[in-house]
């Protein structure tokens, strides 16, 4: 057949018939797959039904109604200790046996033990820590106490009392009172003097009136002179506050004078223009060529040694 000629009706029919046969074959294959899936699903349903019937019959039997003994409860899990965060503090300054530093050293150790109760939970941890922070003669004493395991090593309180007996003499009691009597302001400011005085006052048994008088007695003379213009305060705190304010004013005035010195009287007098006194008509022989000084010039020259 010539390719240029249009296909005959027979050829078109055969072509359409081939396409239809191909589609029919594909539909049969899809139907076969669907039947296989349906059969597999039916088998799965049948198996589940059998299992369900078996489970139902087991539960409905009299033997199954008897409750089995309950299993023993699991052993309680021991609670883990909760980790508590404690503040990290530096070690106190090592104590060398200075009587004045005995109380501050023991106070630092006591504060450390209070802030770290888990680290220092026993007396057996506190006493060795204190001994490890001793030096010099204090360390020699502490080492001897620990090696002999004296009663002072039984607790921190006992060790503290024994340490104060040996090295705390002079920090409290009559000696502390004598230091309170001898303390003076000197060249330091009232603020610094009041700090030293309050520290010594805590170690004495004086009443407030006596402490006020002792503080007043130790003030520098220039502060006492300034206090004359004011009523005497009734309490130690009021006296310290007033004295501190006066001291600040006096020191500020001194700095101002050093920065702006006043001109001397003599230099001021020399700046006066010379004043000539009227010459008498008949001057004396010894007064020729001289002029008389005014009273102001004479006073200025006397003050300036001129």
Automatic annotation (TrEMBL):
Pfam families for the chain: Retrotrans_gag (PF03732)
Limits of the Retrotransposon gag domain: 130-220
Region (Disordered): 56-77, 254-306
Alphabetical list of InterPro entries matching this protein: Retrotrans_gag_dom, RTL1-rel
PANTHER family per record: LDOC1 RELATED (PTHR15503), RETROTRANSPOSON GAG-LIKE PROTEIN 5 (PTHR15503:SF36)
Descriptive protein name: Retrotransposon gag domain-containing protein
């Amino acid at each position: 057949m010539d390719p240029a000629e249009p296909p005959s009706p027979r050829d078109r029919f055969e072509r359409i018939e081939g396409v239809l046969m191909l589609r029919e074959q594909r539909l049969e294959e899809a139907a076969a797959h669907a039947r296989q899936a349906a059969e597999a699903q039916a088998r799965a349903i049948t198996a589940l039904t059998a299992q369900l019937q078996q489970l139902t019959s087991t539960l409905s039997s009299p033997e199954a109604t008897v409750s089995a003994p309950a299993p023993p409860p699991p052993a309680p899990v021991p609670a883990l200790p909760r980790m508590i965060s404690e503040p990290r503090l530096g070690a106190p300054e090592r104590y060398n046996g200075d009587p004045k530093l005995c109380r501050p050293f023991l106070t630092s150790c006591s504060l450390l033990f209070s802030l770290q109760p888990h680290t220092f939970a026993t007396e057996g941890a506190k006493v060795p820590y204190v001994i490890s922070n001793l030096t010099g003669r204090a360390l020699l004493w502490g080492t001897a106490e620990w090696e002999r395991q004296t009663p002072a090593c039984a607790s921190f309180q006992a060790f503290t009392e024994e340490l104060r007996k040996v090295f705390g003499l002079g920090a409290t009691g009559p000696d502390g009172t004598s230091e309170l009597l001898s303390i003076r302001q000197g060249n330091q400011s009232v603020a610094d003097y009041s700090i030293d005085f309050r520290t010594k006052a805590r170690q004495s048994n004086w009443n407030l009136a006596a402490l006020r008088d002792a503080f007043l007695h130790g003030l520098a003379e220039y502060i006492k002179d300034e206090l004359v213009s004011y009523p005497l305060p009734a309490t130690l705190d009021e006296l310290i506050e007033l004295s501190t304010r006066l001291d600040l004013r006096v020191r500020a005035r001194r700095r101002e004078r050093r920065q702006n010195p006043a001109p001397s009287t003599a230099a001021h007098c020399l700046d006066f223009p010379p004043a000539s006194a009227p010459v008498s008509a008949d001057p004396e022989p010894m007064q020729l060529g001289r002029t008389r000084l005014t009273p102001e010039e004479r006073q200025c020259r006397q003050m300036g040694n001129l």
